[in-house]
Amino acid sequence: MKYFQQMKEKAIELKEKDEILILAIESSCDETSAAVVKNGREIMSNIIASQIETHKIYGGVVPEIASRKHVEVINEVIRCALDEANVEKERLDAIAVTYGPGLVGALLVGVSVAKGLAFGLSLPLIGVHHIEGHISANFLQYKELEPPFVCLIVSGGHTQIVNVIDYGHYQLIGQTLDDAAGEAFDKVARILGLGYPGGPAIDRIAKEGNPEAISFPRANVKDRPYDFSFSGLKTAVINYLHNMEQRGETYSKADVAASFQEAVIDVLVEKTISSAIMSDQKRVVLAGGVAANSLLRKRMKEETDKHKMQLYCPPPDLCTDNAAMIASAGYYNLLQEKVSPLSLNAIPYLSLINEGIL
Ligand code: KG4
Ligand code: ZN
Q: Is 292 close to ligand 1, i.e. is its CB under 6 Å away?
């Protein structure tokens, strides 16, 4: 019998098991990560090897270098994840891996290693959507959380408001028409000379600035109340800096960072709350690297409290890329028998949405 058919049958049998251990691998961008997670909710290990120091000198991620770095460390990262969890590979029940979206060369490293492990150990291979992983980080933090809920996804490549109807069932409410929120943070940080990655740098310096110093635009898209646009804001920051320089005036980087951050967070909070009201949801979930932003967390908490909604937000280290979130998403895929064939490929552009727009 072919591997795929055998693994489909194994997935059905696994549903009867009390304890399911998944080893997950994440290598979609500049973090090489491996984790062991029990029953989709309990982290036994979550090893993250960051490449930030390597890419810093270039001011952003260099895809070719990212792939090579993943190749260098991935075996060691997996070994550490198994050691820290104190789990022999024979005890594993499935291998989950991010197969998109992301940098194709980087994704291929994780996908190839996961295929080798799954085939060698005769375990089901589960391809996971990276953003589904970010959403699932909340299941690791909040054991009681179950769909349905409204989720704001804010990462380096994504800005979407999604109605999570059930595990693996996503309906789009709104999305960015140009830059992602994280991308805007990274670009503005670069213009201000704050280095890479820009989000944490802006978050830090903004604490010393006045968020009302400069009035940057809150972009609203005509007739699309739940959609975002951040490119105009980015241009407004560039224009402001050019004008100041041309006039020979000095400006405060902290004020620019704080005013920019305020403009982004205002829009993210306002549209997420109105999406929750419109879709009649009382639970609001945050996901993705920008969800680590301290102002976003604070303001979202204030607004959800005001509207008697419950806010769920993973701790900062589970907001950014890690393999534990991929294991959690992989667990729910496994329960739905979504096993991948060994022909699984890396898909740099992969959509999350599988239900029509709300
Ligand atoms: O989810 P993530 O780790 O990777 C992607 O899937 O893209 O998100 C990375 C993004 C980067 O743009 C980074 O600048 C941003 O998340 N980020 C932050 C913060 N921490 C990370 N943005 C704002 N404030 C932060 N504290
Ligand atoms: Zn990510």
A: yes
